[in-house]
Amino acid sequence: MTFYDRRPMEGTRGTQAVDWEQRIDTRRLRRERKERALERLRETDLGAALLLSDPNVRYVTGLAMTGGSGADHYTLVTEDGDVVHWDTADHATTQRANCPWLEDVRYACPGLGNVPRASGSASAREFLRSTMAETVHEAMAEYGVDDEPLGLDVDSPALVAALEGRGIDVDVSSAREAMAEARAIKTDDEIECLRTVAAICEAGFQRIVEETKPGRRETEVWGEAVSELWRHGAFVGGGYLTSGPNTWPKHQANATDRVIRPGDLVYADFYNVGYLGYRSCYYRTFSVGEPTAEQREAYRTARNRLYDVLERIEPGATTDEIARAFPDMAGERADYYGADEHWQLTTNHWAHGLGLQLYEVPLIWRGLSLEHPIEIEEGMAMAVETQEPAGRQGVRLEEMVVVREDGVEILSQWPVEEITVLECQ
């Protein structure tokens, strides 16, 4: 298999802005993302799109959308490239002061999400939806697109009805698909963001190596790892560490107060760790003391399966071809779960796109891809994950990759050939 050979200094020059070398160019990042979104929008019959999904809003505006109640911020983008952004009072005020690339920032009326739900009144909810639709219609008229179809990236029947009540022709599929297609192919700056967040996760793995000892609780070790991630400037929106029997099957509570013991397998998943909004998904497994022969064999099986999948990922390959490298029902231990179909085994063995969201295009999974394949394109970024039981414990491994013309680039660099052994001292 051919792997992408990085150019000198690719793979994180640092996480801060400096004047003495070219790093991530945030102006170019914003410009190229908006250009990609407009390119896809112009391929549709839409005159404009109303974006309510946080990752889509960030993709077009560059604003730090880290999750919220939904529709207390939203963005209109027209086919001519005009952008109107609505946000809560304080946010809109600071955006006007700090985001000069946004020329039209207005105060939002949250017609969807937690605010109207919390009102406790049907008439209040109707007022909020109606006001939101009215102000969107006013902006469309100002920019000359009120007579053209409006795309929504979130299907909300109540909002659709409110917009249609003002004579707007609403399309609830084209904008969502256009944004998914735009975001699927990463720019150079987006790829460097993903390299950087992978490097930050490796700082977290190193802290786990230093802090994992018999007698420490999962939550204690995980807390130290999270502290390291924040220290490097990451946004930590998820992740966990589990040990011993909590590693198979994966514990529903994620990190618990279980005390780590000699002979335990320990794994950590740094998922939804963000750098400039770009999300990680990165598993590694450790052994507290020398692993048993059964544990080593499970690790070897998981690692080989992972790289069998990676060997199939290239431009032009289809997701059904790649998915066949993942285990069949016997390899999935379907009898253990009492499962009859691959779709019942979500997240065990699959690959999923990465970007401003944890799950993006493409999704490669036996439960879906065999019957509904799509083609892999250069510039797609994804996480590929596998697992394997070892007695009453389990191994999980995951690599972050980007598809290159001359081979897959592996963004994650924590050693994977052999299990990382932690000394009992």
TrEMBL record:
<dbReference type="InterPro" id="IPR000587">
    <property type="entry name" value="Creatinase_N"/>
</dbReference>
<feature type="domain" description="Peptidase M24">
    <location>
        <begin position="192"/>
        <end position="405"/>
    </location>
</feature>
<protein>
    <submittedName>
        <fullName>Aminopeptidase P family protein</fullName>
    </submittedName>
</protein>
<feature type="domain" description="Creatinase N-terminal">
    <location>
        <begin position="33"/>
        <end position="185"/>
    </location>
</feature>
<dbReference type="InterPro" id="IPR029149">
    <property type="entry name" value="Creatin/AminoP/Spt16_N"/>
</dbReference>
<dbReference type="InterPro" id="IPR050659">
    <property type="entry name" value="Peptidase_M24B"/>
</dbReference>
<keyword id="KW-0031">Aminopeptidase</keyword>
<dbReference type="InterPro" id="IPR000994">
    <property type="entry name" value="Pept_M24"/>
</dbReference>
<dbReference type="Pfam" id="PF00557">
    <property type="entry name" value="Peptidase_M24"/>
</dbReference>
<keyword id="KW-0378">Hydrolase</keyword>
<dbReference type="InterPro" id="IPR036005">
    <property type="entry name" value="Creatinase/aminopeptidase-like"/>
</dbReference>
<dbReference type="GO" id="GO:0004177">
    <property type="term" value="F:aminopeptidase activity"/>
</dbReference>
<dbReference type="Pfam" id="PF01321">
    <property type="entry name" value="Creatinase_N"/>
</dbReference>
<keyword id="KW-0645">Protease</keyword>
